[in-house]
Design brief:
27% helix, globular, seven-stranded antiparallel sheet, single chain, 4 helices, Alpha-D-Glucose-1,6-Bisphosphate, Chain A, domain 4, alpha+beta
Length: 156
Amino acid sequence: MSKPEFVYVTYIETTAEKLWEALTSSEFTRQYWFGAEVRSDWKLGSPFALLLDGEITDSGEILESDPPRRLSYSFKHHKFEELRREPISRVVFTIEPFGSLVRLTVLHDGFVEGGKYLGAVSNGWPAILSGLKSLLERGQVLAIPRAALNKGFDAK
């Protein structure tokens, strides 16, 4: 039986270098990740933090950093009590040039069977990645409400 995981693949009209920058620069993430900032030096073993409204919502460690091809970090949620109890998960971004496009594959795994975290990221990642694609291709982010991140998850 396979372990629970979230996989998302999209094609973006951009360069691998620009996509890498959008994934690793708070200047970009604030625009498409609902105001969130990423903090890291993106070196193997370095800390990673995601901040929303000045509060660390998720943190981890850089597991792999191969610009502009592959980035991976551990991911531990801090904001919502129900999700804080779940184990550390892993996020992997794979960036592949594909003609004038870039294929972005996001794998988020390490979830427990029956946990709520998989459902939460399954709602959050599509909203975040749609904003990323729109920003890189059109120069503006879709007007997706922040509530889309928690759709289907009753955050208390």
